[in-house]
């Protein structure tokens, strides 16, 4: 079998072969590979930011770290999209106000949970929020199996022990409820307000709500430069970087694949907590995390199919 002939150029000489990088299949593969790399970087950035923020807890506490994080998120979102607040109607304002409250409560409950039960367990419990949203409208048997698997993982993580911190567990579950509400409110805001204006407005309002917290902290106990640096790093790594990375990723990776990869965030959190903070988990905790990750992954794979 002989090779296919190369088409002639207008000048009469053979045309140069198409470079491999310009072939559609190769280009798509490279874009998806870049998207996957970005997702990995985004996940590690998010969990590393949370770990760095926890280093500031002894000085400014979870409330102070969350306040700084809200300020950073507001600056980032307002730089991306400047909302036209005067043009908002009440039908647009109420979900924005609700989103602002939920946004702040979600981060405050998560960081308070991290302070009490560690990064891996806190993020795993918070992840039940989007998993519940994914399974709420499900009607297939496999989705019921996913729900049972996730529930088993929660039971394993929250089993009664002398050292069980039920307040920390409750804060993690509150973060899950807030994340689920955050998803639903974001959908509403996205339908009623163009672009990222609604999210930017909500972030700005949330930052204003935490402004008195920052003033009180500075007056009562002036924070160290190291603590402020850790809190700012948490805001940048856990808010700015994931937000911008997700914008790029969703343009190059299918939404189903994006959701599937998000499933590994509890594992990334546990690994970062182990390597960065020395937070060791037993086999039982790892089994509980694995069950919840498996439930979400299986749910996303079924939808992908």
User: What is the number of E strands?
Assistant: 0
Largest sheet: none
The residue ranges in which pLDDT falls below 50 over 5 or more consecutive positions are 1-22
Mean pLDDT: 78
- The CA-CA distance between the termini, in Å, is 38 Å
Q: H/E series, N to C?
A: HHHHHHHHHHHH
Strand content: under 5%
Mind telling me the C-alpha Rg? 23 Å
Shape: globular
Helix content: over 70%
Oligomerization category of the chains in this entry: single chain
What is the SS-derived class? mainly alpha
Plain-language structure description:
By secondary structure, the protein is mainly α. It is 78% helix and 0% strand. The chain has helices at residues 24-54, 57-80, 90-117, 119-126, 128-136, 141-157, 166-192, 197-220, 225-252, 255-262, 265-277, 283-304. The two termini are 38 Å apart. The relative contact order is 0.19.
Give me the secondary-structure topology.
Layout: H1 24-54, H2 57-80, H3 90-117, H4 119-126, H5 128-136, H6 141-157, H7 166-192, H8 197-220, H9 225-252, H10 255-262, H11 265-277, H12 283-304
Helix pairs in contact: 1-9, 1-11, 2-3, 2-8, 2-9, 3-4, 3-7, 3-8, 4-7, 4-11, 5-7, 5-12, 6-12, 10-12
Keywords:
12 helices; about 300 residues; about 80% helix; globular; mainly alpha; single chain; disordered N terminus
Summarize the structure.
The protein is 78% helix and 0% strand.
